[in-house]
Write a structure and sequence with these properties.
Bound molecules: adenosine-5'-diphosphate, magnesium ion
CATH architecture of chain B: 3-Layer(aba) Sandwich
Structural class of chain A: alpha/beta
Number of domains of chain A: 1
Strand content of chain B: 25-35%
Number of helices of chain A: 11
Oligomer: heterodimer
Distance between the termini of chain B: 32 Å
Largest sheet of chain B: 6 strands, mixed
Number of helices of chain B: 7
Shape of chain B: globular
Helix content of chain A: 10-25%
Shape of chain A: globular
Radius of gyration of chain B: 18 Å
Strand content of chain A: 25-35%
CATH superfamily of chain B: P-loop containing nucleotide triphosphate hydrolases
Number of strands of chain A: 22
């Protein structure tokens, strides 16, 4: 780990977005714009059962009644929802069990991103569901997982193969009425991952979904649903990148997690969508609703996220602590540089007795960026002896960036700067300023990075140093 | 090894050091003494290349004028500063910090990074020099260290980095008598015929352990008197006022 850290810090010399390439691949797209017919078309393309179409139509009609939220501390040009393509799919789809038939360009793309889909080559101990634009293109290790009764597949597949599970849980944590972007996603979502861990099963490997936006002018609207039955355990990781384009692209996702008695779900994200260039042109608008329901006694859900990408981020992963003694956790590092804007935070709703939640949020701002923390901790009347610990602080690099806190309960909040004394101390030991910043920032974010699975922690450290390069001096 | 000629240092148009000259040869130990606020730390910082000062004159190190050299290069070339007030770096373990430093210095010398296991063994060996008890991997650089631990940590780092020229800024202050002995012994163990040390101190007691070849008295930004080790004792006995009178200042 330590070793890797150093290697990475040394390896990193260029501050540019490294995942900005475009894959030339035949893509099937539908006409631009959003109407009820488009919603029907998406459902039809995906050969969905009737209940899914109904769900989509209800969500779409509800969306029509809503206005885009304006309360976040972010500003961006109005999004023209009629100028977006809502469905794009690589034409030659990889078959579930034979990657041989997949478009070689597509495999090469994921290889280039460091996500080999060939099972001989994949990271030991990680099963991957790869999603390109609107559809899942491959899921690895399915057979291994199936032996334990674990379901890990694309959402589209789950809708067909396990309709009862989907019917039962879809929208049960994030209903389509939840918010504007949740309604939009519910109407047009095209794919994502589904994961089901049966009673008493500990998932032996990390599950991971890798989201890649490739096609131009498309939005990506995926959904992830994770259900952990009584006593089950799973650790799930999500990663994402997008090509470098001058236009902004919209990403509005939903993640729902359900944990039953004594179940535990760890959800980790390394979000690295294209952030736009140094002048603030282009980049992904990232509007995400992530929520976990600790339904059972002593169930536990933890969110760990490292956010370095996107032009605009709007995201508040949270937990509903329904089961008595259930536990919700949120660990976050959000980095903004150049013109990036982030409004993120966590919501913890305590309903059960002796429920506990922890929020550790670290913002790192550089350039002219804006980084806001927005937290909500609610203890209801029934939540006897519930406890929350919130710690939210920020690190500013330079004086043109901003950090803001909008907590409803504020426990601990401090803002610090990397001092000249610290930089000189490092310089005096032979460490140059860029490297010194990487060291100090990683040190600052360590509490959160330590919560990430190994493979991710390394990537996250690399990302942190890349996204802050050139931010001082 | 080091030649400082006509050094003049000012901050915001206020002159801190002036007409400052010093020559240090390999194998020598120089002590610089002087009351608070005379510019001792400023001198140390300027030798190490800290920015923010207006600097005139020449600093020649290993035959090269290093006035324009950034601090990290000076460090890689073998200049080490033991800080008077070592800064805390939260979350960065001593191991990680030193590994980064050592590998940068090695890279500068055209050497490969040291393999992790070898490096850890190397650190453990060096810990003995200053009787470090601290578990390096689990503690952040200087964070929550007592004054004495911070100073020990500076000398420990010096042992790891093996500099050619060490400038130790009040390494003795804040140490109890046992810690002082340990730290001084550490410094002595690191001494050889090819390296040199400048010890900056306020009191002479450190010089009971580290025998200097030269003692310089710094007063109001200049060296007002230079002598052998006996000068330190004389100074201790008679106080700085004696210098003032003696020099007619
Ligand atoms: N960064 C600075 N800005 C302004 N004045 C400074 C700064 N650093 C040192 N000084 C001043 O320079 C003088 C010498 O300080 P210093 O070198 O720290 O002395 P010493 O180490 O001998 O006690 C003092 O008067 C101090 O106030
Ligand atoms: Mg001083």
């Amino acid at each position: 780990m330590q070793d890797n850290t150093d290697k990475i810090l040394n390896d990193v010399t260029q501050g540019d977005y490294k995942w900005g390439f475009v894959t030339n691949i035949e893509t099937e797209v539908i006409p631009k714009g959003l109407t009820e017919d488009i919603v029907r078309l998406i459902s039809q393309k995906k050969e969905e059962p009737e209940f899914m179409l109904e769900f989509r139509i209800k969500a779409y009609r509800h969306w029509l009644t809503l206005k885009e939220p304006q309360w976040a501390h972010i500003s961006y040009p109005a999004i023209d929802y009629q100028d977006i393509i809502y469905y794009a799919a690589p034409k030659k789809k990889a078959q579930i069990d034979s990657l041989n038939e997949a478009d070689p360009e597509l495999l090469a793309t994921f290889d280039k991103l460091g996500i080999p889909l060939n099972e001989q080559k994949v990271l030991a101990g990680v099963a991957v569901d790869a999603v390109m634009d609107s559809v899942s293109v491959a899921t690895t290790f399915k057979a291994t997982l199936a032996e334990k009764g674990i379901i890990f597949c694309s959402f589209s597949e789950a809708v067909k193969e396990f309709p009862d599970l989907i019917k039962k849980y879809l929208g049960s944590v994030v209903p389509y009425t939840d918010n504007y972007f949740a309604a939009l996603n519910s109407a047009v979502f095209s794919d994502g991952s589904f994961c089901y861990i049966p009673k008493g099963v500990r998932c032996p490997i990390e599950l991971s979904t890798y989201f890649r936006i490739n096609a131009a002018n498309t939005g990506q609207f995926e959904r992830t649903l994770i259900v952990a039955e009584e006593g089950a355990y799973v650790s799930y990781m999500e990663g994402c990148t997008a090509p470098q384009r001058d236009e902004n692209q919209l990403h509005a996702a939903i993640v729902e997690i359900v944990a039953m008695d004594n179940a535990e779900v760890k959800y980790s994200t390394v979000q690295n969508w294209y952030p736009g260039d140094k002048e603030g042109k282009g980049g992904i608008y990232n509007f995400v609703t992530k929520r976990g329901m600790c339904k059972g006694f002593r169930s536990k859900i933890s969110w760990t996220q490292v956010e370095t990408g996107s032009a605009v981020t709007w995201k508040y992963p949270g937990c509903i602590l329904l089961g008595d003694e259930s536990v919700g956790e949120f660990y976050s590092v959000a980095v903004t540089n150049n013109f990036q804007q982030a409004d993120t935070g966590s919501k913890m709703i305590h309903l059960g007795k002796r429920t506990k939640s922890t929020i550790i949020s670290k913002g790192i701002s550089a350039g002219k960026s804006n980084n806001s923390y927005r937290g909500l901790v609610r203890m209801t009347k029934n939540a006897l002896n519930a406890r929350n610990f919130t710690q939210c602080d920020s690190l500013l690099l330079g004086d043109k960036c901003g950090a803001h806190t909008f907590p409803y309960i504020q426990v601990n909040n401090k803002s610090s700067k990397i001092s000249d004394d610290q930089l000189f101390y490092c310089n005096q030991r032979g460490i140059n300023t860029e490297q010194a910043i990487a060291l100090i920032v990683n040190g600052y974010a360590k509490e959160v990075l330590n919560k990430l699975p190994m493979e991710f922690a390394v990537e996250a450290q690399k990302l942190l140093s890349i996204s802050l390069e050139g931010s001082v001096g | 090894m080091l030649k400082i000629k006509n050094l003049e240092v000012s901050i915001d148009n206020r002159v801190i050091l002036q007409n400052f000259n010093l020559e240090v040869k390999p194998g020598e130990v120089h002590a610089i003494m002087g009351p608070n606020g005379t510019g001792k730390s400023t001198l140390a910082n300027v030798i190490a290349g800290r920015e923010g000062y207006d600097v005139k004159g020449e600093i020649i190190y290993k035959g090269k004028n290093i006035m324009q050299m950034p601090p990290e290069e000076r460090a890689r070339e073998g200049i080490f500063l033991g800080f008077q007030y070592p800064v805390e770096i939260p979350g960065v373990s001593i191991t990680n910090f030193l590994k980064t430093a050592v590998n940068e210095i090695r890279k500068h010398k055209g050497l490969e990074p040291m393999p992790a296991a070898e490096f850890l063994a190397f650190l453990n060996e060096k810990k003995k020099i200053v009787e470090m008890q601290t578990t390096l991997a689990s503690r952040s650089v200087n964070q929550g260290f007592s004054g004495g631990e911070k100073k020990k940590n500076e000398i420990f780092q010096m042992a790891v980095i093996e500099p050619t020229l060490a400038v130790l800024d009040e390494t003795d202050s804040g140490l109890d008598i046992d810690a002082l002995r340990i730290v001084a012994n550490g410094i002595n163990k690191l001494k050889n015929k090819d390296n040199a040390t400048i010890v900056i101190t306020h009191y002479q007691r450190l010089l009971d352990y580290i025998i200097p070849d030269f003692v310089h008295v710094l007063y109001k930004g200049r060296i007002v008197k230079t002598g052998g080790k006996e000068l330190a004792l004389e100074l201790e006995e008679k106080g700085y006022d004696w210098i003032k009178e003696e020099m007619g200042l």
